[in-house]
Amino acid sequence: MSTLDEEDRREYYRIDDMIALQISSLSAAQAQSKEMLLDDSQLFNLLSELHLSEFESQHLLRQIGEHDRTLAAFLKVQNKRMDLLSQVMAQSLLGKIGAPQPVVISEGGIEFQHPTALAPDSHVAVKLVLMPQALGLLLRAKVTHCDARGDRFDVGTEFEAMTDAQRQLLARYILQKQAQERRLAREQSEAQDT
Fold first, then answer.
1. What is the per-residue burial (b if ≥16 Cβ within 10 Å, else e) of 139-153?
2. Are 130 and 87 in contact, with CB atoms under 8 Å apart?
3. Burial class of 114 by CB neighbour count within 10 A (0 to 12, 13 to 18, 19+)
4. Is-contact 111 154, C-beta < 8 A?
5. 51 pairs with which residues across the strands?
6. Does the chain have fewer CB atoms within 10 Å around its N or its C terminus?
7. Whole-number Å distance between alpha carbons of 23 and 101
8. What domains can you pick out in the chain, each with its CATH number?
9. Sequence-separated (6 or more) residues with CB below 8 Å from residue 168
10. Model-level pTM?
11. Cα–Cα distance between 169 and 48 in angstroms, integer?
């Protein structure tokens, strides 16, 4: 591995995961723009906006909980209902985006296999649907490397111009996945010890 990869590993937590992923090239103007990318699919845009607004309201929910527990409990139930709706939306999107595929993902970027070569330093839009949270993100990325492997290509990218909310949503997803993996490993270890 290159020194850059080793530096990335130290800077961000990385996980192996299975996610629905769609890659498309960006024009120079799209790559330089600071505006959030929008997808052609209105359903995907709504899913993304739903999670971003939920994330942005978390601090308000905590403040309400400090003053009115009943109201906070009601709002948490409403949040759960919205989460369930977002999972329904994500399930219908999976058919359009494609089957989940193995990736290595961190807050800093994503590595995946692609059917065609992508030029290093080119810019792409990375559409992700992360399950089971049904988190939909559309992010800008710069291709860091592209290596042939049989009839496919191993591609590494670095995310660019992420909003703070997008970065924190991705970080929360990664931390939840890591906690789940540790829990499963601990349960398997305990089952083997008995």
1. bbbbbbbbeeeeeeb
2. no
3. middle
4. yes
5. none
6. C
7. 12
8. 3-193 (2.40.10.220)
9. 55
10. 0.73
11. 11
Nearest-angstrom CA–CA distance, 138 and 42: 12
Kindly report, residue by residue over 7-47, the tens digit of the pLDDT.
544 455 888 999 888 898 888 777 777 776 767 777 777 77
Gap between the Cα atoms of 173 and 132, Å rounded: 10
Amino acid at 21: L
Closest to 151 measured CA to CA, from 110, 101, 117, 103: 117
Strand 152-160 and strand 123-130: the pairing is unpaired
* Cβ-based neighbour number of residue 168 at 10 Å: 16
Residue 158 · residue 5 · CB < 8 Å: no
